[in-house]
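The instructor's notes for this session suggest beginning with a concrete chain rather than abstract definitions. Hand out the sequence below and ask the class to guess, before any prediction is shown, which regions might be ordered.
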Amino acid sequence: MRTRVKICGITRRQDAEFAVEMGADALGLVFYSHSPRAVSIAQAKGIVDGLPPFVSNVALFVDAEPDEVYACIAALPSIILQFHGDESAAFCEQFGRPYLKAIRMQADTDLVSMANNYTSAAAILLDSYQQGVPGGTGQVFDWSLIKTITKPLILAGGLNANNVAHAIKQVQPYAVDVSGGVEHAKGIKDKQKITAFMQEVANG
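After discussion, reveal the predicted structure:
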């Protein structure tokens, strides 16, 4: 089965267009003000409006107020939600939209139990744990910690063209999620890195 690709932290229209041209399946838009890749709803609309069909747009939140999420859904009605904080399943479910739940992996993380807490999630996204940083660490975690779960698994955390093929072979995820690994500055994507990453995904 082909491994899907989400390119996260998109802040510019030209980066979104190139990612789609290179075959990305999803684009991630960060609605977390402390992130260097954060965008406003108006910026997000400018990035995704009129993009070709069959590409998913994903809105990333970290312990946001419900009104923030509802405002995003109103402006971007086809958006998929991604929750990257300590949100409960009940919180994630209230919006009536497909959602991804991120779990930040540590040595003592009981992945099976945590995934079972989010049976309504469309997929579980695994990222690296760094205290005080909810995501975008650029660090790889120990993939041997990953256990089999019943949900589609999205692998994130420090992926780039040098390691993604190996990651796919070892983990066999439904999808991979990359941000810093295809950038030349935070929030500014690099065409050569995106091209190389997509090629290595195909080799995985």
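Then share the key points. The longest strand covers residues 99-105. Helices lie at 13-21, 41-48, 66-75, 89-93, 111-116, 164-171, 191-203.
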